[in-house]
């Protein structure tokens, strides 16, 4: 599953520096496809300067005349907006946007994240070409982010959703590479053996008086029950009990370095 199926579309950008900043934000988050609709000043050294090394994104940027051309092949179009519009529209926050984008590319779709002009945003007509509107929940008294900053926020959320989706197999891989003993939980019968061993040891060291048990064992069961002990951890605990018994009985005991 690749982030190449998500394109960032910048509509009618006036400052080339913002195009560079957006390219940098994209490359940081693993997005590669930039589409520029009728940019006012591009290519430009200001874009290269702000891209700060993400010039490959600028070099491969597609320049088109209309939003319609920028959206060819997209099955999901999301339009970003700094303020509420008159016609209510299905609205997503950036986190939901990440999830929706990932669902779409998992199904083999193509996604466009559309950003508007620095001074006027997207027109109502442009916003109506989008299935969803995305609003970054900024302070209503100062709601408009810099264009490249808005690209950064959404690119980050897309990346987080992508990492979460890719984490599932990697967790499985981790399970396979680490010792199974270290991850497998102990069974109820193994725990029962342990409690028997613990009780016996506590009696031997004089911590537990069988005549006056003071609910010690149920409390310890409750404590261990909360811990989700692995088989390896259980072996360590049993080893400690065995060595404790040897010590209290005056038997020779093993040093860990032996
Ligand atoms: N004066 C414009 C602000 C445009 S800011 C307006 O009122 O709409 C330039 C672009 O950055 C916006 O078109 C949008 O794509 C993005 N942007 C800025 N702030 C945003 C926010 N709070 N939520 C979503 N997108 C935002």
3D structure, described in words:
The protein has 258 residues and is an alpha/beta fold. The protein has two domains: 3-165, 3-Layer(aba) Sandwich (Alpha/beta knot), CATH 3.40.1280; 177-249, Helicase, Ruva Protein, domain 3, CATH 1.10.8.590. The protein is built from eleven helices and seven strands. It has a seven-stranded parallel beta sheet with strand order 3-2-1-6-4-7-5. Helix 1 links the parallel strand 1 (6-11) and strand 2. The mean pLDDT is 90. It binds S-adenosyl-L-homocysteine (SAH).
CATH level 4 superfamily of the largest domain: SPOUT methyltransferase, trefoil knot domain
Q: What is the CATH class designation of the largest domain?
A: Alpha Beta
CATH architecture of the largest domain: 3-Layer(aba) Sandwich
- Proportion of helical residues: 40-55%
- Global mean pLDDT: 90
CATH level 3 topology of the largest domain: Alpha/beta knot
Integer-rounded radius of gyration: 30 Å
Please tally the helical runs, counting DSSP H or I stretches of 4 or more residues. 11
Classify the beta-strand content into a percent band.
Answer: 5-15%
What count of domains describes the coordinates? 2
Estimate the global geometry from the Cα principal axes: elongated
The ordered H/E elements are: EHEHHEHEEHEHEHHHHH
Oligomer: single chain
Class based on secondary structure composition and strand pairing: alpha/beta
Number of strands: 7
Main pleated sheet:
7 strands, parallel
Alpha-carbon distance between the two ends: 50 Å
Residue stretches low in confidence (pLDDT < 50, at least 5 long) are: none
Main location: cytoplasm
Protein name: tRNA (cytidine/uridine-2'-O-)-methyltransferase TrmJ
Family: Belongs to the class IV-like SAM-binding methyltransferase superfamily. RNA methyltransferase TrmH family.
Subcellular location: Cytoplasm
């Amino acid at each position: 599953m690749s982030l190449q199926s998500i394109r960032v579309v910048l509509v009618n950008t006036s400052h080339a520096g913002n195009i560079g900043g957006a390219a940098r934000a994209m490359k940081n988050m693993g997005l590669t496809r930039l589409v520029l609709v009728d940019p006012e000043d591009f290519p430009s050294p200001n874009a290269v300067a702000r891209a700060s090394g993400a010039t490959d994104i600028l070099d491969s940027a597609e320049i088109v005349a209309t939003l319609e051309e920028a959206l060819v092949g997209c099955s999901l179009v999301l339009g970003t907006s700094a303020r509420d519009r008159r016609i209510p529209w299905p609205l997503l926050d950036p986190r939901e946007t990440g999830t929706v984008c990932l669902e779409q590319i998992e199904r083999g779709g193509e996604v466009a994240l559309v950003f508007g002009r620095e001074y006027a945003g997207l027109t109502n007509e442009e916003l109506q070409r989008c299935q969803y509107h995305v609003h970054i929940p900024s302070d209503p008294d100062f709601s408009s982010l810099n264009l490249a900053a808005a690209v950064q926020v959404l690119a980050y959320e897309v990346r987080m959703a992508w990492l979460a989706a890719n984490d599932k197999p990697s967790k499985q891989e981790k399970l396979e590479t680490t010792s199974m003993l270290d991850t497998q939980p102990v069974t109820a019968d193994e725990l029962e053996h342990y409690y028997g061993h613990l009780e016996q040891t506590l009696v031997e060291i004089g911590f537990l008086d069988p005549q006056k048990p003071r609910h010690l064992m149920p409390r310890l069961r409750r404590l261990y029950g909360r811990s989700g002990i692995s088989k390896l951890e259980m072996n360590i605990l049993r080893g400690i009990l065995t060595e404790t018994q040897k010590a209290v009985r005056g038997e020779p005991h093993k040093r860990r370095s032996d």
